[in-house]
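Re-running the complex after MR caught last week's input typo. The corrected sequence lines follow. Everything else is unchanged.
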Amino acid sequence: MLTVLLVDDDAEFTEVACTIIEFLGHEVLTAGTLEEARDWLKKETFDHVLLDFMLPDGSGAHLFNELDALPKRPRVTLITGHPSVKSVIKGLCGPTVDYLVKPIQREEIEAVLSQKKKSKEPEEAKIEKHFDLLIGESPVMKDLYKLIARVSKTSANVMLLGESGVGKEVVAAAIHRASESEGPYIATNCGAFSKELIGSELFGHEKGAFTGAVGRKEGVFEQAEGGTLFLDEITEMPIDMQPNLLRVLENKVVLRVGGTKSIPVNCRVVSATNRTMEEIAQSKVLREDIYFRLAVFPITIPPLRERKEDIPLLAKTFIAEFNKDNGSIYRWEDSQLETLQAYDWPGNVRELRHFVHRAAIMSDPEKSEIELPKTIESPFAQKQSTTPALQAGRTIEDVEKELIYATLEKVNGNKTTAAEMLGISTKTLYNRLHAYGDLSKDE
Amino acid sequence: MTSEEFSKLSVFVHDARKPLNRISMQAELVKMALNGDVAPEKAIAALDKIISSAKDCSHTLTEMTSDLGDNIAD
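Corrected-run output:
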């Protein structure tokens, strides 16, 4: 931080210039005449003086002798409205004095104060955040925005379906924001509580309801009064707790654990799960009656691989966030964004964000280039996607093995059909499987 | 052009430059407001000042042409 004295007789100019200089992190004092400037120089010490050449009571150059006499001579930048004065100043004050020619730009002030002449690159176009939260301009996301806007105007309970990392909690917050309800947004994870504690978390408890219940506690239903309650991983909720939840959803009253009084509640419930609707129906993790109460309006959030055109926008946003937090100046190359776009991102937006942050941490903080790891890998990748995009750096053997297993899975392990599909003899298929150590000798 | 005319012209140019400097400074402020660096109300105030400075500048130029035009007529 520098202490700057700005001497100029145009009050409107100095006012704006002060705002800019202060924004750049410096302290600034102003003087409108030589007289005032002399006063300040007696009272304060300055690191830098920005001095108008033409002042009402004389030329700024008159101040030079006084400045020379100071114990710590500030750096001086002369401001002039006439480009022709430049050469005069040079002759008068020697080559060590900087000068600015009006009209002045912010970057020029920045440059003289930091003594660096760096040309700032043009600012990137701002990336729009829908509902202040969601990023993406792909058709699937536009459909999603439409759904959010529609449902937020009603009080319907929403169930969000989508793979891990697609941003279910962000969408829940977006619904809350779009609804403009007065109550708060409360989020809780149904998978994070033990069977014993989930009742108390959801419905609250009275003092002494159980060992350790030292005080009364409001449940999340009460906390979200008039707002939105987000229940994440709803399918992880113990099935025998679900009748209690059903009662709250149907009657709109909660009974605290150990309590006797019914408390009316009024909030929208947004629930989320990473299972598909079919899985929910088959696996019996959610009671049917609860499902229909919660999923009045089901919304499926698309995985990142179905909206690859949004990857550059997201990557740019994440790197901008990182730059802001760390004062770095990283920028993507177009080729890097293409690499990111080629990958399938089984961990979705969350994986992309962590990948971007990891790459930024690994890069040289002095430079603007981001060093991408040679391959993008995730321990969950193989499990999630059976047909991952081909990527340079993998061996043919590797890809062949994966293809064989994927084919076998598709035909339920029928090796004759699999061999036919793969275009190899059954014998070759057996040989391969032997080589992978997947078949016993006698098979 | 006589030296008297030239110094007169210089005064007008100086007067016309002043609002231009203000406009350019206020424009920087608007940029900062759009970036979220300063309060958005400042942008509105700055834009009002830009408009009034533009009028000032235009006024000075009108004055200059009529003043110098008078001289030609003489």
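None of the earlier attempt is carried over here. The interface with chain A takes residues 14, 17-18, 20-26, 28-29, 31-32, 35, 37-38, 42, 46, 49, 53 of chain B (CB under 8 Å). The first helix of chain B runs from residue 3 to 34.
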